[in-house]
Design goal:
Mean pLDDT: 95
Shape: globular
Structural class: alpha+beta
Distance between the termini: 35 Å
Number of domains: 3
Low-confidence stretches: none
Strand order of the largest sheet: 1-4-5-8
Strand content: 15-25%
CATH superfamily of the largest domain: Butyryl-CoA Dehydrogenase, subunit A, domain 3
Number of strands: 10
Order of helices and strands: HHHHHHEEEEEHEEEHEEHHHH
Radius of gyration: 21 Å
CATH architecture of the largest domain: Up-down Bundle
């Protein structure tokens, strides 16, 4: 198995992405957060510089890079004070199309995605009644001639209002007609502009962070048969590629958040003087920051291991999940430590820590909760019986 370079390498990518993000400045992201606006200018700049086409092969106009480079791009956005949640969907959704799309689908869509003419930022899997119990989803896709008719509902569907295409998982064969519950699910590539108002309705969900997410309703939406990705009924296996990439990239983003908090905490503790000296000389301040740094480094190592397996085409479900769990916990601890180090100033909007603190909290829950990760590890790594 080829061993990729350590994630600590790639200084050119790191420096360039960090410079792009910092060029917008903290005030830009603060203002977008306050207004609950999508950072359109920032995402456009990432696209124009080619970062959003990192995973697309060169023959289709992309950079032809692997998940290791994509993870560094996402990490550095968060480390520099931005929020990768505005654009990371294109990175992990890309793997479903890249690995399982037809030659015709790739030729049609990949060059336009690479150029920025189209965005593939959204994936519709989760449903209000089934949550992460994906194989029990209720959305149906029924074949009628040269079309599939979609009926159902999805929830927590992010960036759909700022995307042109969406990956949709729906059941094409009823669950009681398949041998395994993971069979009978299929993947579709939805043209959002053609679907909106013609069988698809979007209802925004306002939440505690500036993360555009929605409920989506399907009522007789007709999709051309050519929108099917791969083989009918094999969609659950296909979507796992996107899910594993999603967990790994979000883990890398959490490493970036942790670095942000640690760097801010260490700098402030060195500058802030109380009782005749900098507060960083006190162990009660020093030790939590050092612990946060240690946890971040451990998470970074797990992320690297998961990426190595993913980019080599090896099974990586456990590694992707563990990396996401450990990294999200590291970023949350680092964020809490950063606020504690700043004291009252940690709650002030102008310091940006409270914004980043709210943003990183999401990853204790999404895209999969810690309890479900622990259940996966107990079952798949330790041989324990399923707890549900």
């Amino acid at each position: 198995m080829p061993i990729p370079a350590a994630r600590s390498d790639y200084p050119e990518i790191r420096d360039a992405v960090r410079a792009l993000v910092r060029g917008f400045g903290d005030a830009y992201f603060r203002e977008k957060d306050e207004a609950r606006e999508y950072p359109e200018e920032f995402v456009e700049s990432l696209t124009k510089e080619g970062w959003m086409a990192a995973l697309i092969p060169a023959e289709f106009g992309g950079a032809g890079l692997g998940l290791i480079e994509a993870s560094i791009i996402m990490e550095e956005i968060n480390r520099a004070g931005g929020n990768s949640g505005a654009c990371h969907g294109q990175m992990y959704n890309m793997n479903t199309l890249l690995r399982h799309g037809s030659a015709e689908q790739k030729a049609k869509f990949l060059p336009q995605i690479a150029s920025g003419a189209l965005r593939l930022q959204s994936m519709a899997v989760t449903e209000p009644t089934t949550g992460t119990n994906t194989t029990d989803l209720k959305t149906r896709a029924v074949r009628k001639g040269d079309s599939y008719v979609i009926e159902g509902q999805k929830v927590w569907i992010s960036r759909i209002q700022h995307s042109d295409l969406m990956i949709l998982l729906a059941r094409t064969t009823p669950r009681d007609e398949v041998k395994r519950k993971s069979d009978g699910l299929s993947i579709f590539l939805v043209d959002l502009h053609a679907a909106l108002g013609k069988g698809m309705e979007i209802r925004p969900i306002r939440n505690m962070v500036n993360h555009e997410t929605n409920e989506v309703f399907f009522d007789g939406l007709e999709l051309p048969a050519s929108s099917l990705i791969g083989e009918e009924g094999k969609g659950f296996r296909y979507i796992l590629d996107g899910m594993n990439a999603e967990r790994i990239l979000i883990a890398a983003e959490c490493v970036g958040d942790a670095r942000y908090f640690i760097e801010r905490a260490a700098a402030y503790a060195s500058e802030r003087e109380v009782f005749g000296g900098p507060i960083c000389q006190n162990q009660v301040i020093q030790f939590p920051i050092a612990r946060a740094y240690t946890q971040m480094r451990a998470a970074d190592a797990l992320v690297s291991q998961a990426i190595e397996l993913f980019d080599s085409g090896e099974p990586c479900g456990s590694e992707a999940n563990m990396a996401k769990m450990v990294a999200s916990e590291a970023s949350w601890f680092a964020g809490d430590t950063c606020i504690q180090t700043h004291g009252g100033y940690g709650f002030a909007e102008e310091y940006d820590i409270e914004r980043k603190f709210r943003e990183t909290r999401l990853y204790q829950v999404a895209p999969i909760s810690t309890n479900l990760i622990l259940s996966h590890v107990a079952t798949h790594e330790l041989g324990m019986p399923k707890s549900f």
